Amino acid sequence: MRKIIIGISLLVIAVVVGACGSNGGDSEGDARFPIEITSERVESGAAIYAVNCASCHGPVNGPPAIGIAPVHGSAGHTWHHPDRLLFDWTLDRPPLATFMPAFRGQLTEEEVLDVLAYIKSNWDSDKQQQQREGSVQYEAQIIEFGTE
Ligand code: HEC
Q1: Which residue puts its alpha carbon closest to atom 42 of ligand 1?
Q2: CA separation for the pair 30, 37 (Å, rounded)
Q3: Is 104 helix (H, G, I), strand (E, B) or coil?
Q4: Buried-most residue among 23, 40, 60, 114 (CB within 10 A)?
Q5: Position 3 in a domain
Q6: Is the residue at 70 inside a domain?
Q7: Angle separating helix axes 83-92 and 125-145, nearest 10 degrees
Q8: Best mutation site among 41, 57, 90 for ligand 1 pocket (most ligand atoms within 8 Å of CB)
Q9: CATH number at residue 137
């Protein structure tokens, strides 16, 4: 009897897990995105940026310290991308990157969230708003279609 109950329980778990995974998406969503700009994050991120990013990117609002590094401020392109991509690119390099290093192993994921919150806090409020909406839409697509 006990074995049958265990067997049925496992079957129920398998069916439930299978149903959740059927759209390949993350039905829960990821609470880290969009990244909230809090004063704690901005303060911590400013220090992380100064040590790890400014040597190439210069101050967030420019000019870059080395010619090929893009400026992260409102005048640049960074705000055109959703938070999750900025997060992934900082950890594992942007696609086709030449000089941009991977920070996985150098910075924790929390530190990457902090440094991005700091960068975002420097954008004009209309760009901040637009980029936030883009990040929300991007997360909705991931819930629907998954990350692959
Ligand atoms: C050694 C120089 C260097 C350092 C240090 C560096 N970057 Fe970059 N970064 C680059 C370059 C150059 C590019 C353009 C892509 C390429 O050719 O590598 C880039 C591109 C990027 C991009 C994608 C373009 C964009 O703006 O959307 C992001 C995001 C980024 N860097 C974030 C950071 C953050 C955050 C840090 C610090 C934690 C950092 N980078 C540190 C050189 C650097």
Answers
A1: 100
A2: 16
A3: strand
A4: 114
A5: no
A6: yes
A7: 80
A8: 57
A9: 1.10.760.10
Give domain status of residue 17, yes or no. no
| Confidence (pTM) | 0.86
- Write the residue with the smallest CA distance to atom 19 of ligand 1: 100
In a domain, 89, yes or no: yes
- How far is the centre of ligand 1, averaged over its atoms, from the C-alpha of 57 (Å)? 7
Q: Residue 92 phi/psi, 5° resolution?
A: -125, 15
Q: Is the peptide bond before 34 cis (omega within 30 degrees of 0)?
A: yes
Q: What is the pLDDT of residues 69-99, one digit of tens each?
A: 999 999 999 999 999 999 999 999 999 999 9
User: What is the pLDDT, as a whole number, of residue 15?
Assistant: 43
Ligand 1 pocket: which of 68, 100, 104 to mutate (most atoms within 8 A of CB): 100
Containing structural domain, residue 39: 33-145
Number of domains in the chain: 1
